[in-house]
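batch_manifest entry 22 of 60
target: PD-(D/E)XK endonuclease-like domain-containing protein
source organism: Desulfatibacillum aliphaticivorans
requested by: lab member K.T.
priority: normal
notes from requester: please return tokens only, no post-processing; we will run our own comparison against the previous entry in this batch. if the run fails, retry once and flag.
--- input ---
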Amino acid sequence: MDLQELRSQPHLSCSSISLYLDCSLAYKFRYVDRLKSESVSDALVFGSAIHAVLERFYNSLMIGEVIPVDALVDLWELTWKEHAEGRDIIDWKRGNDFDKGLETGAGLLRAFSQKFEVVDTAIICVEEAFSLTIDGLDIPVIGVFDLVLQDLASGLVTIVDHKTRAKAMPERDANESLQASIYALAAKTNGFRFDDLLLRFDCLIKTKEPKFEQVYTTRSELEIFQVARLIKQVWAGIQAEVWLPNLGSWKCSGCGYKQACQDWMQEGYHG
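--- output ---
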């Protein structure tokens, strides 16, 4: 499927659903009012750049070519410059800057290269767009699988999502991940059986000593039913124009709509 074509039509996505649940007012600013973000967090830019490098890595591996660690670091330097150099819109967290990101990314990719292995496993697809329909929902839910693998012996399929994190991912976070639940729902609509499916987070962890860890999870039929029900309720809220600011959220500090939120909160005030 072509992701740009899917995005050109009305849809929901993992990110838009998550944003509505986090702060429906921010959803309004982004997807209804189409406001330009006042800033973008350095973590988001960093994660996008790492994703781009891993996409190149796995596409090369898919045709039998392993990118050596030094070449991977060189690729990172080029990619990071493309994503972050000279971009005034980036909201750098205290202690972070372009050079710090360059160093951190190189360390993470070296850690990834040391622990990475694909043994007796086929790469089914890399950055593969998907679209799914839910009974009672009149628009599709779209997204992208970062990586899909299949064990050659058992036939077991693993859907992989790449994550950059400040600390290790607890198993509970993986088990409760909305994104993983939507991936499982998408897999089900594309004919995967649940006893043949795993979900995995490949985490590049930005600790003092960079780490690469993999966290597995699964979803039951009940959990798939529940996430479909949740998505329908999100869409109902959007259709009803229910916009509620999540005041005091830890995400407020990195939000790109601070001024828009402040203006909205003061609208109609004449004191």
